[in-house]
Amino acid sequence: MKFRVFSTFLLAAAALLGGCGKSEDKAAGKPPAEKPKIALVMKSLANEFFSTMAAGASRHQKTNAAAYDLLANGIKNETDLAEQVNLVEQMIALQVNAIVIAPADSKALATVLKHAKEAGILVVNIDNKLDAGVLKQADLQVPFVGPDNRAGARKVGEVLAKQLKIGDNVAIIEGIPTAFNGQQRRLGFEDAMKAAGVNIVSVQSGDWEMEKANGVATALLSEHPDLKAILCANDNMALGAVAAIEAAGKTGKVLVAGFDNISAIHALMGKGEVTATADQHGDQLAVFGIEAALKILRGEAPPADQATPVDVITK
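The structure corresponding to this sequence follows.
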């Protein structure tokens, strides 16, 4: 709530100030005539990962207030694609210099982002990579700044696999199936489990949401009473899985892994209820994207992909 008020204030201020020069001044590689406006468009701020991302971006802007203005906002829930498209359209209308976006879907945002590019706005993709095929079809080039989700998930899975035996049964709760980062994390978990000789008995979507993942995990525990572990593509869903395991009276008997390293997961890791998670440095991820955008706008760097760190976290 507090952050949305902050964002609304910035939007109003930007509307009063008007554009920062003509659209041709905002093209990649051309420094803007005035202090640039950077729009950060995130996914659900109800997810601690994105509220942490927003806070990190806000701190960075305050430290670099002379370098750029920040307009930041997110959607209500992970699946509200229409609202995220609407946010991008608002940023186009406000004539921002760059949009740094964590897309809720890897395909559905391509059209509106092409409109942004046609308006002379630089687009930088963070967190969830846009689909390469859709970008090619739209003749759209967007640099990606973010981690290797598959490699990170594999490392998390390898830690969990050390506590399993060959032939044990596990399940995966993935994110939104059309999200590239969700696909990559599922593949990383599968890589680790296959290498360990572990059976994956089910892969189901929890849509990144704790409540839905709780329902999925509850059903999995009932359908597979010999289940030894649940690997979750984000920590929100891991929280839901842990609650389901506790409700089923199986705490300590079913392992859980997550991804994101949100603070809510730390106590569970301390008690051994979550084995491992991955830290993709959410407080810095938007900052990486913002800094890349500023360099491109100043003509100091070409629009290019940039790998960011991801680390495995255990007790």
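The two ends are 32 Å apart (CA to CA).
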